[in-house]
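Chain A, query sequence.
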Amino acid sequence: MENANCIVIFDNTALAKVVYASEGITDALGYTVDEVVGMDGYQLAMVSDMERIYRVHVPCVMDETMATVIFYRMRHKNGQPVHVHSTVHYCFDLLVVVVFVETPGKTSTRSKIHTSSADDVYTINSNRSISRSVSLVGTWRSSETQIRPLLRSSARWVDNQVAHKQEPRFCLILNRYSDQLPIIFVSHLAESLIYTSNSDLVGRSLFSFVAPEDLDIVRMQIGIAKSSDMVVRLRFHWIVDHTNQTSLPVETVISCCDDGIVMVARMACVLAEAS
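Chain A, predicted structure.
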């Protein structure tokens, strides 16, 4: 179990149901993929930690953070606690979580790298308190967002759905073991944002959708994410019409584990329209 890692995707409801899990979850938590998909996310937490995990979960959802690292305990299938740190990417109606098993009492190099490149870092301590580090300067957060209190009471879920208007985003999971980085998972909102059906995305190389002038930087930045475990931020033009070479600017956050590369994207033009 040591050094095990996996990708888990939860829906953005109050129950945070599991909608996707990579095969690494078996080494990390003992469940098979079929067993865990459909579970309420809080079933994967230690009962004694649930209230504190919820208190961290709320601001991550309501503030729509792109990359938050959380240190906490998950529950193994055998009922035992598993110390982990997770990189959580907020993605419209999904929470994309990359989970890394930690050795209790030790701070891994990988976790240090993740915390140095995240928007926020939360730790659920053994005394049941919650610690929060200072947000990373220059991330996709407004000053207003950064000063919101951790335990704010407004803007919760209504009828199990997020009540406030959300920024449209989509996510991809890429096969990290192929040089062409084929797409193996895509969230449903991609079709309306980049005008390509999900069936036309899955199985194709990410690079086939990157504008030629951006290919070198995209290859370089993803290479950094793979080799250094950093959470990488990347802007490039996504080709939406290959015949006419029409593209749209996107901003992405990228992280990776043994089971794949996670990319969460939003349209860069959304920011331009809002300014």
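The CA atoms of residues 172 and 186 lie 5 Å apart. The chain has two domains: 5-140, 170-274.
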